[in-house]
Structures are given as C-alpha cells and as structure tokens.
Request: fold
Amino acid sequence: CALPIFCMSAVKQTIAERIQQLRLQMVVHSAIYYVLNDNIISDNEWATRAKELVRLQEEYPEVASQVIYADEFKDFDGSTGFNLPQDDRVMAKAQYLLMIRSKRRCQ
Reply:
C-alpha cells in the first residue's frame, strides 16, 4: 500500500474499536444461530473471531471494560454465544443480514 505514513494511523483500527466490532459480530451471529436457527458465517469463522476477542480482552482488560457489552462479555471464553444479549437492536441487525443474504441468493 502506498499510503503516506501520516495516513496509515488513520486506517488502523484501535483495540477498542476491534473489541467492539467483534462483540457486535458475536451477539448478532449468535442471535442468528440460536434464535433464528440459521447462520451466515461458518462455525469455524465464528470460533476464529471468538478466539481473537478472548485474546484481546485478556491482553487489554482495561480497554475491554470500557467497550459496549463489557458486563455481558466479562467471562466470555469463546466456547458459545448462547447466553449473549439478544435485544431488539441485535435482533433487527440479525434479521437485516438474513434479508440481505436472501436477496443476494435471488439475484
């Protein structure tokens, strides 16, 4: 990539942003799997993301404690998403992603 040095830091994701992204992915994909009885990503992909999240939370506990769903992910070990939050926002996003997938299959 030919980005100038001063632009490269703007492209990088912070630890907090990555933890937030992974947590949101975990709750949405868990809702798709456990509530809606479907999936968009493979079990292997989910496990890979879960392992990364666990690693980041262990390496940066002070950062992890300040990111969305901190309490819900406090003891998250990556083995299951069954007990993760399934609030209205999560369910709306899950249904939206399934709708997009359905439309792509029809094209």
